[in-house]
Structures are given as C-alpha cells and as structure tokens.
Q: What sequence folds into this?
C-alpha cells in the first residue's frame, strides 16, 4: 500500500502548498506582512493541516483497502481456512496491518508536509522574490520542536485508527459481496470522523502541555 | 465392518437468534469410510461442520474428534487436532493474495518444522496428486473454478490428515469437472486411507462415493443407510432427495 499512497500524498501535499500560499498572499499583502509567509504556512501545515488532510486521504486509500481486503477474505471463507490450518488469523492479518498503518502514516505525513512547503516556496519564489534558500531558512527558524513533536505523535494515533477501523470493519463484514462494499465504505466514513475527534483530543492535550 | 469412530457428534443444537438450525443432530464417522451427508440448501450442513472444527460454538451437545471433546480443548490443542482434519471449503477459499505455492505452504509453515527441501517436495507431491504441477507459480485468480477446487483439495491434503471434510466439493462445476473431482477424492481415499465426511447435493456424487449416507432434515439426522437403501425408501421426504 506504500508507493501508491506516496504519490497520492505528494500530489495532494504539493497542491495544498500552492493553493494555501496563493490564497493567503493577498491578505498578508494588505497588512504588509508577506515576509511572514514562510513561518505562517509552515506552522499551520506542520501542526494541523498536513496531518489531518493526509490522514484523511490515507483513510480513503489505506482504510478502505484494508476493509475491502479483509471483508472479502471473510466472506470467501479465507479467514476460516486460516483458522482451521492452525494460524491465528487475527495475528496474521490484523496485527500486521495495524502495525503497518501506524508506522506508515507518520512517514507519509512528513513527506506530505515537506512537499507542501516546496509548493508554497515555488509560489513565493515566482510571485514574490524569495529564494528557496531564504524560504526554507525562515521555515526552520519558525518551526520549533514543540511544533514537530506533538504533530508527529498524533500521526501515529491517526495511523493506528486507520488500521484498526479498517480491520474491524473488514473482519466483521456481513456475508456476500454487498457486505464487502459496506465494510470498506463504513471503514472510511467512521475513520474520517474518528480522525477529527482524535485531532481535537490531541490539540486539547498539546494546549494543556504548552500553555 | 464396524470400525472405531473418528468423529462422534451427539445431540447437537445450534441456533442463530430465533432460527433453530440444528436440533438434536447426531452423526458418527467411522475410520476409513466415506460418509455422505445430504440436506437441502440452508439446512445447516455448513454450520454443522463449522461446529465440528471449532469455527463456531455449539449451543448444546457434544462433539468428539479422534476421541477428544473439542469444546474442552485449549487453543493450541485445538490447532494440533486441526492438523488431523483436512477441510475443503464450499468456495475453495484459496488465499487470493498468495500464489498456489504459498497457498500450499501455508498449512506446512504453521505446523511442522520442515526443511525447505521437504516443503518443496510436499508441495510438488500435493500438486501432482491433483494433476496440476504447472500451476505452482500462478495466482488463484488465474485458475478456473475447477482448478481452484483441485488446488484447494491439495491444500486440504497437504498435512496428510486422518479425516477430510468436503463441503460441497462438486457444486458450481460442470458435470465432467465434477466427475474428475470425485475421482480425485476416491484416489486420495485409496492412497492415504483417510476417513471422509462429504457434504453434497449431488446425487451422482453420493452414489459413486458413499459407503453410508445421512440425510439432514429439520435440523436432525433424519435417515441413515446405504445409498441403495435410502434410494428405495417409500418415505416421501427421503424420496425428494433422490428425484
Ligand atoms: N453466521 C451466521 N449468522 C446467522 N445465520 C447463519 C450464519 N451462518 C449460517 N446461518 C444460517 O444457518 C442456516 C444454515 O446455513 P448453512 O450455511 O449451514 O446451510 P447449508 O446447509 O450449508 O446450505 P448450502 O447447501 O446452501 O451451503 C441458514 O438459514 C443460514 O441463514
Ligand atoms: Mg453450505
């Protein structure tokens, strides 16, 4: 599930960076604060928008495929077949997938964030005259450890949620092909909602810690 | 020839919500025989064999496999016992993300600590048994339904089980392929001297393969006997099976 997600995340991240910078420019210009662009964009993307958008994309991509895969294994009795051949299907199928999703998401988010910043830098470079070097200098100046750490920690939870819900829905899917569709669909819907709830909790906790 | 019973099911009850599927079902499978279980679609045949291998919990009644009460076994003991049971699923149930080779290696990996050479030899033997040695590196989706069924059969046999359970081995296949599968089953029976429980709707299959038959009706073991005895019966409910 890795490399296709990578492409998806990169494209999304890039466009996010472009659009976000284009949209913010006029407002910042009004206040004569365009030079704040790199720090503003980097903080908002790294802290919040990057993790949430990319987790949502992955819920659609990874969560649904886990749901559909386990769902169809369930309805075609492949899971039963594993069990009668003495393998614990839970360990073999569920644990591995949840682990993979949990480890994968933080990496995808970091890549997505980075590509988004490149997108933003390109706009600043063409519309304004900020060199890439200057742009990224300002980015690293603006970003602090206290931005990166909580943002990265919460992406582990996002990944875990995506894997868990996908597996749960797939593993418990009802008989028939309709059951598989439903499993993958409700995996996405439920995960997306859960991601916002988790994000809220993460922000809440971070707020307590740092203020 | 009254042999030792390898499967003893007595007074089995199983219901889903308000639907009673099995009500006082009894069955014995004796060593070395081919027992055919017939029953209408939805009569609970698959449910019965899922209870038998511990995939479903029973509501009431006892199931003994090779002398062991399966409800009293711990997970690892149950897994151990399952190595003695080969299971051919109704829809073949091949792992569709794995090649034929990996499908066949799967039960081997989990159970025995064979060397790679021995595993390879067992896989080859299993594929030769079903006459499909060239499919080893294909994916299940690249095989026809009949080939999939044969691969599933060879996977069920790879641990040389004492008991084989076939859930509708010929359903969904054309008559010629169905006959091939039946012949394969009979060869395997001869070669490895297994005891078989065969679930089928297929009267021809039952005629050819059965030593003894049990009819499942209304959740009970309604009638028992040889194919000829049952086929001659005057009971209209039994007659309905042989039309
Ligand atoms: N997991 C389940 N939950 C609820 N009901 C079930 C479940 N599995 C089976 N049933 C019900 O039990 C009954 C028997 O099903 P089963 O699959 O054993 O039929 P069958 O005799 O194998 O039929 P077929 O020949 O079509 O395979 C059916 O009415 C089915 O709806
Ligand atoms: Mg069935």
A:
């Amino acid at each position: 599930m890795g490399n296709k997600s990578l492409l998806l995340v990169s494209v999304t991240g890039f466009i996010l960076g472009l659009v976000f910078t284009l949209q913010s420019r006029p407002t910042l210009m009004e206040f004569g604060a365009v030079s704040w662009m790199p720090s503003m964009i980097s903080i908002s993307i790294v802290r919040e928008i990057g993790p949430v958008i990319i987790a949502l994309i992955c819920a659609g991509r990874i969560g649904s495929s886990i749901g559909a895969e386990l769902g169809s294994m369930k309805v075609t009795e492949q899971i039963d077949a594993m069990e009668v051949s003495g393998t614990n299907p839970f360990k073999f199928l569920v644990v591995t997938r949840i682990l993979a999703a949990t480890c994968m998401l933080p990496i995808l988010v970091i890549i997505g964030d980075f590509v988004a910043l490149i997108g933003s830098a390109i706009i600043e470079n063409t519309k304004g005259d900020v060199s890439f070097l200057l742009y990224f200098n300002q980015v690293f100046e603006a970003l602090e450890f206290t931005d990166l750490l909580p943002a990265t920690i919460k992406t582990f939870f996002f990944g875990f949620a995506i894997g868990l819900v996908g597996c749960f829905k797939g593993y418990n899917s009802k008989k028939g092909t309709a059951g598989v569709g439903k499993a993958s669909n409700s995996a996405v819907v439920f995960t997306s909602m859960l991601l916002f709830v988790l994000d809220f909790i993460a922000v809440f906790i971070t707020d307590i810690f740092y203020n | 020839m009254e042999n030792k019973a390898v499967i003893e099911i007595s007074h089995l009850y199983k219901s889903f919500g308000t639907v009673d599927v099995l009500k006082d079902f009894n069955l014995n499978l004796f060593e070395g025989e081919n027992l055919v279980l017939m029953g209408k679609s939805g009569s609970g045949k698959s449910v019965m064999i899922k209870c038998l291998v511990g995939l479903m919990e029973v509501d009431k009644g006892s199931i003994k496999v090779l002398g062991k009460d399966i409800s009293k076994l711990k997970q690892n003991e149950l897994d151990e016992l399952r190595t003695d049971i080969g299971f051919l699923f109704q829809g073949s149930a091949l792992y569709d993300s794995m090649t034929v080779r990996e499908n066949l290696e799967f039960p081997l990996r989990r159970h025995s600590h064979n060397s790679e050479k021995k595993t390879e030899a067992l896989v080859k033997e299993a594929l030769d048994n079903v006459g499909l040695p060239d499919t080893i590196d294909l994916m299940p989706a690249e095989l026809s339904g009949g080939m999939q069924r044969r691969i599933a059969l060879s996977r069920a046999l790879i641990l040389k089980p004492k008991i084989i359970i076939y859930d509708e081995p010929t359903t969904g296949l054309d008559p010629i392929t169905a006959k091939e599968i039946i012949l394969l089953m009979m060869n395997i029976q001869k070669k490895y001297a297994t005891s078989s429980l065969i679930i089928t709707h297929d009267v021809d299959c039952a005629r050819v393969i059965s030593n003894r038959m049990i009819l499942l009706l209304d959740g009970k073991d309604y009638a028992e006997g040889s194919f000829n005895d049952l086929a001659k019966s005057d009971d209209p409910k039994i007659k309905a099976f042989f039309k």
